[in-house]
Automatic annotation (TrEMBL):
Protein name: Carbamate kinase
InterPro entries: AceGlu_kinase-like_sf (IPR036393), Asp/Glu/Uridylate_kinase (IPR001048), Carb_kinase (IPR003964)
Species the sequence originates in: Phytobacter palmae
GO molecular function, one term: carbamate kinase activity
Alphabetical keyword list: Kinase, Transferase
């Protein structure tokens, strides 16, 4: 069944939390199950799938629990918290995909969640300008108080409230790409690059050293898609199509965008910096390296329609 081209499917960490009051792990798993049921349609259509995922809210929750319990248990460094989310969210998707595949008669297809490292530059300027939102949204007063008492950096996030922010360096290499490629060749569905991958850099002896940061999952997913020569980069999100003049009376949905059109809109600041812009940037990175590839942005529920050309926004050269 999984004998065709490779598709990288990049699911956001925010997509697992349907509303501010639905952030318990059991509720996140329900969101994972729904997404998994739609990803199976991709597998059934013959695509070999690598599913990646974000971890913004979840990694922040882990750090906050660690800070609250610091007098009773050792605190969790950021890079280890990223690893924790790879295990927990990876398990959710692995379990949900196994069950969804079995329900559709594909129980022979195996699924594995792979702890993944992403190489970065330790001198990346992102370390001096933290801007990656993690954890919960807060009002300004609460965020300011926690910044003062916990030493956080904070920033307003896309009009939805204030959040803690951490460094987010550019991904340069997915360390486990050869292993992912081998697993795909064995028709295994792979869950990888959780939270953008655990950030690491190489010292003068070539040894991998972990860094305290959270890599953007869209940027890491685009890099992985390029390294795998993937035939498609699919980013499920909260809207079925990309729009211009989003939220205004002049809003217009886009069913197709060329690389040149997408680049022009991005440079004109048409897309929100904390919402659609990183997804468009990921599509540009992917298509520049894979000009014959297909990029899709749609909702999880819209995946089947988008594959058939009846929904979503299609990105091509």
């Amino acid at each position: 069944m999984c004998s065709g081209k490779i598709a990288v499917v990049a699911v956001g960490g925010n997509a697992l939390i349907r509303s501010p009051g639905e952030n318990a792990l059991e509720q996140q798993y329900e969101a994972v199950k729904e997404t998994a049921s739609h990803v199976v349609a991709l597998i059934a259509a013959g695509w070999r799938v690598v599913l990646t995922h974000g971890n913004g809210p979840q990694v922040g929750f882990i750090l906050r629990r660690s800070e609250v319990a610091k007098d009773a248990a050792p605190t969790v460094p950021l890079e280890y918290a990223v690893g924790d989310t790879q295990g927990a969210i990876g398990f959710m998707f692995q379990n949900a995909l196994c069950n969804a595949l079995a329900a559709q008669g594909f129980s022979a297809i195996r699924v594995v969640a792979l702890v993944t490292q992403t190489r970065i530059d330790p001198n990346d300027p992102a370390f001096s300008t933290p801007d990656k939102p993690i954890g919960a949204w807060m009002d300004h007063e609460t965020a300011t108080r926690l910044a003062e008492t916990q030493g956080w950096h904070i920033a307003e996030d896309s009009g939805r409230g204030w959040r803690r922010v951490v460094p987010s360096p550019a991904p340069l290499e997915i360390i486990e790409t050869p292993i992912i490629r081998d697993l795909l060749a064995q028709n295994v569905v792979v869950i990888a690059c959780g939270g953008g991958g655990i950030p690491v850099w190489r010292d003068s002896n070539g040894m991998l050293v972990a860094a305290q940061a959270v890599i953007d999952k869209d940027r890491a997913s685009a890099l992985l898609a390029c390294e795998l020569n993937a035939g498609m980069l699919l980013i499920p999100t909260g809207v079925e199509q990309v729009a211009v003049n989003f939220g205004s009376p002049q809003q217009r949905w886009l069913s197709q965008l060329s690389l040149a059109e997408a680049e022009a809109l991005l440079q004109s600041s048409e897309f929100g910096a904390g919402s659609m812009a990183p997804k468009i940037e990921a599509m540009l990175t992917y298509l520049r390296a894979q000009p014959q590839g297909l990029g899709l942005i749609t909702t999880p529920q819209g995946i089947s329609r988008a594959l058939s050309g009846n929904g979503g926004t299609r990105f091509t050269c």
